[in-house]
Amino acid sequence: MVTSSPANVRSAVAAPRLVVDLNRCQSYGQCVFAAPTVFRFHGTESLEYDYAPDPGRWAEVRRAAAACPVQAISLGVVPGSDSAVPEVPGE
Asked: What is the CATH number of domain 14-76?
């Protein structure tokens, strides 16, 4: 018999995610300026980011994606989940 614990239930529901195509990224850093709590540089050119930011940060993440000059930032969900990128009121 399989039981569901709260941890199992949480892991079954996928959260919205952001993905950065690091092959396309040219380290312009516009995302770091737009969403410094989500994106940061490690060293001089290596971009680090939170692939599942807090829901309250999605307005920043959307601005960062829009600011990327090479469109290396994608917003979406993990395949197979039915979660969507949260709507941000006023946008």
From this structure: 3.30.70.20
